[in-house]
Amino acid sequence: MEQLLANPYVPPLILTAVIILVFPLIAGYIVLAERKVLADLQVRLGPMRVGPYGVLQPLADALKLMLKEDVIPSKSDKWIFWLAPVLSTFTALSAFAVLPLSDRFFVADVNIGILFILAMSSIGALGLILGGWSANSKYSLMGSLRAAAQMVSYEVPLGFATVTAIMCAGTLSMQGVIASQFERGVWGAFDNYGLMLIPTVLFIIAGTAETNRAPFDLPEAESELVAGFHTEYSGFRWALFFLAEYAAIVVISALCVTLFFGGWLRPFPNVAALEMPLNTLFPAGLFALIALGCSKGVFRQFLVGFRLVMAALTGLFLLVAAAFVLPVVNELMIGLFWFAFKLAAMVYLFIWYRGTFPRFRYDQLMDVGWKWLIPISMFGLILNAFVQLMGRGYGLG
Amino acid sequence: MSLDTVLFYVLAALVLGSAIMTITRRNVVHAAVWLISALVGVAGLFLSRGAEFLAGVQVIVYIGGIMVLFLFVIMLVPVHDESTQRRFSNQKWPATLAAVALFLWVAFIAVNGVGMLDHPGMAEPLGPGSLSENSEAVGLVLFSQYLLPFELASILLLVAIIGAIVMSKTRNRETES
To answer: What is the DSSP string of A210-225?
Structure first.
């Protein structure tokens, strides 16, 4: 076992397999979280039937999608109809290869990690475009055209914001970016006397557009285009598109967390006094609080089976809370905890947008992209470059 | 054969095969998809030569930018009318001439060896150590040795953008009047 783990190819392969197997489940629970949060914003309850408080809903959804008939329109371009969802899912999951999940959990730390993620997301966009075209439906085609125009427009500010962050970090490697934030003693977002907030905000806006999420969800705009590019997709292929969408959200959020919010570093990584409260008390307390919430369900549910599920969840979260108190486990998992925590906060932000912002009109979308985001991102790049140069001692005089 | 050699032949087969498929497909969108596959193969070739920055940029610019715009335009054209038309134009002779010239040029380089393309600083073998500076090396060469061609290329692109705007503006005026 020791020998096997020492082989440089084995741990990344294991992690790859784990990511591919576990991610569909995580995506399912992100969908559940989204439905619950949206329901809460609209003063509803959301899914409540499958399992206590709907906690087993993702499993039921997955089963339903697998068993549904897979309809291929007879006038469609079958080959591309087949290719499009595969392309989207493949590229979205490939991008996970360079995500720095923690200081010891990552598949690969390559020198062009950030370029690799951007490249994968741009190939993934082709899945949307080809999928909408191949279905041979007007609504799908409109969705595809919008997706193409939107991708090209918003990749530019996204790229400029990324370049600004890379410029401060001085490397294209994901782990290198985090290391540089540790050395500079400040998260990327607050670097350069707070001027890095410009690219941070732009990155979040352009990232939302790049993943086709509300308020930039024009390619699927259900109120005008039925379902946009995936109108004709059903069953498992449709599920693949959704898996790709949620994978893209996670990847863009992870990129944002890595570039601007310190990746797997805890807040204030250079203040030694905060080591204990932030690295032990905070995770243990957080999971204990979740366990407390679940324990209330044990008494409130009426079905015995549901009570048992809630009791099992209470036990599980208590166990996790206890595990974070153990120094061995804590040291191993704390990076992963902080990364997942920040990632979850970003994903919540995406859901929050969807619940609160109305969708842009097409001309507004183009106006915001070309007349506001691109000039501001260029300005932010030059401003931050200037401040960096001053900081490194290349004064004007 | 080393892994590098195997990889080279696999990628070369991918590029050439996809390129042949690109020019033989009747459906324009299928041709575009094969072109994307060829471009991915070229990115793979860059990667196997240690030019990782070029590989990343190849994918982002050619696939993420140019091919998306290609598809955007293709989708606006009714494919079923185009696919039945004769695609080979009458400019057979210029095309043959260009192909022969290109072949002779490539053959000339192949015969004379790769050495004639080297310039000082690029000839060092790419080891694991030199990989990390790939992006920096591209940047330094681009903004010092090749600054003039770089600026000329950007001016050319600017001219193309202005030209496109002028052309679309005049057409709008005609349709309005």
So the answer is: HTT-TTS-TTT-HHHH
